[in-house]
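User: Predict the full complex structure for these chains.
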Amino acid sequence: MMDGSDLGILGKDERQDAVKDASKEVGYVTEDGRQIGGVLMELRNITLKFGGVVAIKDISFDIREGEIRAIIGPNGAGKSSMLNIISGFYTPSEGELWYKGSKRPPMKPYEVARLGVARTFQNIALFEGMTVLDNVMTGRLTHMKAGIASQAIWWGKARDEEIANREIVEKVIDFLEIQNIRKTPVGRLPYGLKKRVELARALAAEPSLLLLDEPMAGMNVEEKEDMSRFILDVNDEFGTTICLIEHDMGVVMDLSDRVVVMDYGKKIGDGPPDEVRQNQDVIDAYLGVAH
Amino acid sequence: MAYMSEGAAGLRSVPALLQRNASRFAGRPAYREKEFGIWQSWSWAETQEEIEAFALGLLNLGVAPGDHVAVIGRNRPTLYWSMVAAQMAGAVPVPLYQDAVAEEMEYVLQHCGARFVIAADQEQVDKVIEIQDDLHQFEHMIYVDPRGMRKYDHRALHDYAHVQAQGRAARDELIGELDRRRDALGYDDTCVMLYTSGTTGKPKGVVLSNRNIIETAKSSSEFDHLTPGEEVLAYLPMAWVGDFIFSIGQAYWNGFCVNCPESAETMMTDLREIAPSYYFAPPRVFETQLTQIMIRMEDAGGFKRKLFHHFLNHAKVVGPKILDGKPVGMFERLKYALGEFMVYGPLKNTLGFSRVRVGYTAGEAIGPEIFDFYRALGINLKQLYGQTEASVFITQQPDNEVRPDTVGVPSPGVEIRIAESGEVFYRSPGVFVEYYQNPDSTAGTKDAEGWVATGDAGFIEEATGHLRIIDRAKDVGKMADGALFAPKYVENKLKFYPNILEAVVFGNGRDRCTAFINIDLTAVGNWAERNNIAYASYQELAGHPQVLDTIQSHVEEVNASVAQDEMLSGCQVHRFLVLHKELDADDGELTRTRKVRRNIIAEKYADLLTALYDGSESIYTETEVTYEDGRKGRIKATLQIRDAQVVPAAPMKVAAE
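Assistant: Here is the predicted structure of the two-chain assembly.
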């Protein structure tokens, strides 16, 4: 009943396909013994311009199957823009996005969501007046296909569909331990819990790539510890690939397998946390040098 | 002692009761648990199948008769089944407190020599792994929730579902052995071993036999007329004897349904959804709920608030009378019925008490206002007095004879004796077999005739036959004239007033009682604010004449109430003072759990104590205090000493002689 493996939340087949497609490169094994697979998403020479402002300049990196990938950098480095490109909010001015072995054409965010990319937002974007349950249910929207007539009378396909989706949502609620606030309107929740509800909504979509935009911003130490544990658990239990932006260096270094460091729209470092920590450019970017 | 026919129709163990229930109540629900937002349920027949399959799995793992099987986790059907499955396999279940830290578990697991541990989840598994090197007899661990367990070394670690599946697969092979062991369970074999929480010294393993559990379940069920239709919510620690009696003993004896909440945090929602008919909670739970209701009513609109208070006042007058079946006027009854419709009914529904037919509280003294509040709403809340060593029940209050200050009449089959010292002794079919591997403690608690010392002092009210517990036996003393001195009894009465935070009553070996009193800054400060009384410090507020007047009236009310007891009327407070500082654990005046350290206080404030007895009107004193950062300082004060009116001892004593 509680078995994680049959939760049906893994999107396992999709992931395995992706591994096959990306077999041009083999993965690596992390320090704690996790097998990381081939490339899930690859960004090639991405440049993003807003008029004359160059937000991102010629950046390339990849995200591998099953890893926790962090993007760090000082304020204004272009981290959130990068996440917005991955999730389809922005279309890059130059460069290519390769996802699961094929080139991804410019897409609308909802199309990207259907491909199995889910995200959370830096400033919480939940429906404040709706309950936690309803908010998390919206994460299943891309999986619901019943017609408007069936939905309106809640009979037949719509009903079966809702029950099946509710089951998945309940498993996520159980996983993130938010049963006690299931029926609470989101507006009444403290900040830390709202963040967790956002994560729940993203997880409900059963993503193969989960994007977290500053999941721990504004949290106290205890909330950060909880959130870190959930991120690790999601990755461990469901094998979900996670790409996150975070400011708390301690958290980033502990959680992630590989880190991309950005500064002024350029990539200044890329590699495992220990390696990045030694990188002189990174140290300069964080501590500041005379330009 | 005359027992019922040996094991009441051959039902000599919990697995035997399970077999009976599986045929008699086959389709009725035995367990419910909220999982994934839905109440999942298992009928008695399904429960039997689940438990049997797990018991076969345990045999498959090599559980031998007499083995100890530790069970750790929150209330879940699987863990209740684990306990019964262990019994079925001839082993002894040992439930542990799930919030215990690893070292505490180590002592218990070592002491009982558990070969098997059944743990709820990763958290519990980690604790056992941390200490397993020191557990020489420990062999296998089974976990229920597989979350996070994938990467663990599974050589001696098993998934509950897997053990069960293997049991099912090996059914043909092992069922003969399982039946043999199940049939061999005798009435005097061990049913369960429960560790006392051990506030003093190391925990002791209380061995309870099938006879203890089944006889107790049977007689207590008859006492409260429990039926197979009861619903209980299992939310108290599984390692506590009460949960074992309510959720296993009585549930299996009567065949009623045990409901397990989704998580500890959802308890209140689940309580409301289940609306149990039979409910137990410690006084603290009732107190918190009442506070929450009152705070939420303060936030309600004016009309609703007026309505609430109007009907609540009415309920306080007639509610308990209606509950006790005493005569109440027609108009009063009609008004109560209207209140039920408009206020009490919806309120009980919100609290999850709509269907409570029998509610119990025990463990510590409950404030009379709290107790009366729930009874006024028509909730049949009663008190009981019990111990692990007695399989819970020593005394309980019968319907219609409920009062906040007694703990009831002896439970069916229980004999009570009050020793010379005032200590309460009991003897019953529920009396424990022994403390496991601790003959000295067993001999020190239970004598050859089966009388068990409770460690509590009390007396039986002659008029009603109710037992009243007054204090821990070691705190009770004698006054100079030989009258009983029970300080905590009086202190508790004083502390029920919101204005009084702490009270320390003196009088052991003296001719009369006196008291130190601490005001509650929140309550008194609030009162001062509302009455425009300015104060600059705690000390000033504590010495304010109006505050002293209020406290004096409280003390006099308590005196009047103490005087009602012929045995304790000597404990009335003749003189008191309000201390200029709050008693504090940092100064060693309280323990860390906020219990007063009487002797240390008496020594430290010897000058004040002397003044209480030498008749002076006021006293100048200097006291050393420790600040939070460890620095020390002195505070000086002149304290007023007040004489409180005392009531002459109740004439009943004379009449009784």
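Residues 476-654 of chain B form a domain with the GMP Synthetase; Chain A, domain 3 fold (CATH 3.30.300.30).
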